Amino acid sequence: MSLMLEYWPWWVGALALTAVAVGYFYSLGLPCGVSGVFGRIVDWREEAKAHQTELAMARNAGRLQEQMMAEALAALQDLPEEERRQIEAEMRAAQAEESTSTEASTVVRPHPAAQLAFLLAIAAGGLLAALSSGRWQIATTMGETYTSFFGSGPVAWLVLFAGGMCVGIGTQMAGGCTLGHGITGNSSLQLGSFTATAAFFGTAVVASFLFMVLL
Amino acid sequence: MACSHIPTCPLFQHFQSNATLRSWKLMYCDSDRRSQNCERFKRSEKGETVPPNLLPNGKTIML
Q: Lowest CB count within 10 Å: A13, A157, B22, B26, which one?
């Protein structure tokens, strides 16, 4: 028996996506995004090293705080006298206001293997949805609309490849895409995310109209 | 205007812990001008990997 005969209503999908973004953030302490994961997997050696460093920082929170405090006091001495006095005055004011110090916790990024598992799970989820709805099939075209614009021959494949390259380059330059900027970044009122989202949605709208007119 | 990287900087939350650590924030995070001197900011702007234990003054915390 098929588990999903129809597509879910749009608002159910929206709630599900929200749950994923919020759950991702609260379980990992990181904003949810997919395109950034590709970059981190390509740079897996640096990511694995950073993961180990963050684990050490999380496990040695007391020593971490001590070292940061010692370095802070040393860095203060390197400042020009006027700037140092100004900062010390602000520190004294802050010290007078606070009653106790707290210890912040270090967010440990997922190991690259876990990030790869996240990407594979996305593909697996799509496969499961297609299988359960009886819609799974090996497709060699991108659908009627795409075929009407670019045909189904070598030109279509070339356009697809070039478009994919643009997506890959663009998401790395922008540091995110529809999930990272469109949902996570915008919801936390990031100016960079507003800009990126406006740019890629605006470009997509213009490109769609151009394709309709020209092709 | 404060450093634009504050929302995603993993060290920033540590700078709120006490008055001494807050000096990092005062020295490097509280204005655009000061953030330009932050080693983490500089490397991030160049697209380089920023080690989690790199302090704003370029020193590395060893644990």
A: A13
Write a three-state SS string for B39-55. HHHHHHHCCCCCCCCEC
Which residues sit opposite B60 in a β-bridge?
Answer: B54
Nearest chain B residue to A107, by CA: B10
Does B21 contact A31 at a Cβ distance shorter than 8 Å? no
Closest CA to B61 of A32, B53, A50: B53
Amino acid occupying residue A34: V
Q: How high is the pLDDT of residue A2?
A: 47
Give CA–CA dist B34/B38, Å, rounded.
Answer: 7
Q: State the burial class of residue A79 (Cβ atoms within 10 Å of its Cβ: 0-12, 13-18, 19+).
A: middle
| Alpha-carbon distance values, B2 to A37, A153, A191, B26, B33 (Å) | 28, 53, 13, 10, 9
pLDDT per position as a tens digit, B13-32:
899 888 889 999 999 998 88
Question: B51 to each of A55, A116, A155, B6, how far by Cα in Å?
Answer: 13, 21, 44, 16
Residue A119 vs residue A94, higher pLDDT: A119
A64 and B24 within 8 Å at the Cβ level: the answer is no
Cα–Cα distance between A205 and B57 in angstroms, integer?
Answer: 44
pLDDT at A100: 62
- Phi and psi at B60, nearest 5°, equal -110, 135
Q: Is A99 helix (H, G, I), strand (E, B) or coil?
A: coil
Give the distance between the most distant pair of CA atoms in chain A. 77
- Residues in B closer than 8 angstroms to A44, CB to CB, are none
Q: Do the chains contact at B55 and A31, CB–CB below 8 Å?
A: no
SS3 assignment, position B37: coil
**pLDDT tens digit string along A156-203?**
899 999 999 999 898 888 888 888 888 888 887 888 889 999 999 999
